[in-house]
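Tutorial, part two.
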Amino acid sequence: MKEYLLNEIALRINKLSTEMWGKEKAILIIGNHPRIIETEQKLIRYAQADQSILLTGESGVGKEIFARSIYLFSKRQGKPFISVNCAQYQDPNLLTSELFGHKKGSFTGAHEDRKGIFKEYDNGVIFLDEIGELSAKAQGMLLRVLSEGEIKPLGGNGSIFINTQMIAATNSNLKEMITKGTFRQDLYFRLCQLRIDIPALRERGDDWKLLLDYYLNQLNKKYNVKKRFSKDALAYLENYHWPGNVRELKSIISIGFFSGNGEQVIKPQDFISELHQDNSRKELSQDIAKYYEKMMDDGRCFWEIVQKPYLDRELNRSQVRTIICQGLKKSSGSYKRLLKNFNIPDSQYLKFMDFLRHHKLKPQAILDRN
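Running the prediction step on this input gives:
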């Protein structure tokens, strides 16, 4: 593994998870963008608190990976850990029974007593993924676990006291669900005492390149080949919005790898049909527009609004190039007029041009008329 793929915290997570679960199941959090490092730092701080934690983020960002990472740094490390996907249970009774247990005959199909996960994993850590799928009844029972530390099995009379840490995750907007009456507000407040928002892949600058490099290398090693993505393919992916996040990226890498009639170079046509093209263009243009408008409409300077986020890796090269291209269209291709629109002093013309050349940011389709 190339060490530059993992920052200091990610290396610690990888080492601990390897010791706990072995190399095949070890955790990799690949990326060096400030947003992902900030998330990892928060993860370690919150893990020490031994409180319930809510993880939020879009589908495919890796919420279970972060839940397992929290467990590794928690006081309960080494005790039982289990992951439960709440969405996989179509029958509300089955999920409630799975979590809290039941007594024989409490519902159709309850042929014997069942302890339930909260009891079986007492003193351990339970990860509840897609918690927005919980029924109203299960939400009420979960609230009692969080507030009183007790469960009452379905059909049972007495309460059972437990000491379990819970990590919950959702890609749903729980506030909207509260407004619609499908999620309890009091449960939401209990869950949100400690919250970690996992950034989307498109918010992590060039981290997608590190992920692509790693997963492609894994496939190359497995099948003893040396496939690579063409420049056109990489350019296409750089402009993509990644609505499916890391999960989608891994899928695209796999599709491209096994397409192309055995050729060594992966081209756009090998995977392009799998991308959500309309969605990516719309969202990407909206993301870029806010930077462009701050200069054109609010009078803010390019160095502050675009250069700094780019150097901090909050914007990637393709996004900055698009901003410049939009500005050149507005200024009829003149870089000198562009400086005025971007609120850069005339005396900094050479500095601006040197910045573009050094970082390969000059749009190729528009000629410099100066």
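Residues 278-284, 365-370 have pLDDT under 50 and may be disordered. In part three we will examine how such features are distributed along the chain.
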